[in-house]
Request: fold
Amino acid sequence: MAPRLITALTLTFLALGVPQGPVLAACQFDQLAQLPVLPDNLRPVVGARINGTAVSFVLDSGTFWSTISGETASELKLSVYQDQPGYNIIGGVVSSSIVTVKGFAVAELASHDTVDFRVGEGDTGKAGLLGQDLLHGFDVEYDLVNRVIRLFKPRDCGHTVLAYWVKPEQPYSVVHIDLATRQQPHTVGAAFLNGAQIRVMLDLASSTSILSLQAAAHAGVTPGTPGVVSAGLTHGLGRERVPTWVAPFTSFKIGDEEIRNARLRIGDVAGLDTDLLLGADFFQSHRVYISSSQDQLYFTYNGGPVFELSTQAGGGAALR
Reply:
């Protein structure tokens, strides 16, 4: 089927090179947990319990280390000890302090061992972030339209397509990803901007997607380019606010999904080895399955705007 040429916020799906079909007979595909998503603007927030006390965390696909705020650690009287020097994350720093939690549970999943959290110095507005150190053993489906996150444990599935909800003839996309590790604490993949490959980081803890000024300039777009409009200030985990703009591009393509005449938020995301933070707004407009078992990202388009592009005065949404 020939693709349709369309305008922004309407998507073109090209033919996939990956065969679509039923799950292989040998593939065991077990759902281990279903996490209700709590209302919190765009970010996926889930309930948890620490030593029986109810808390809420932002589920973060973009970093390896789980963090807890110093305020939460103090309120729950958790013991803090020093480890190696602190390290940078988006818009903030995680200190050298570690909190060890013996009683930690998310939904029906309860830890039978101690869980270490880094102490976050930034402000998430919640108890902290749940990172890939707690999620790396699972495949994670983000079905945010239905306000639920599901954890799976596939076995013997090989190259089976794991986007199990896809109906016959329904388009879907697959992107290879490098999952977060201790050495490289971000989940990254590739996309294309105006036909040139860019590096994309999956960052659910960021409310909005944002393209770096460097990547925008490489595509021939700067804050002074005609058609670019101010989009207010934004901030990361740190307190510093930086200006953002909404800018037009000829095309944005990820997987086999393309937006022609795309508009993207651009701003300073210096300090990260990435061109585009793909935030919670993208996850809201798609059903997404991150497969650690295959190092693949599967997704389908739900409809509606792909990116949050508010340009109201002072309306730049927080990165985290």
In short: DSSP finds four helices and 24 strands in the chain. Residues 248 and 263 are 4 Å apart (CA to CA). The helical segments are 70-75, 132-135, 213-218, 280-284.
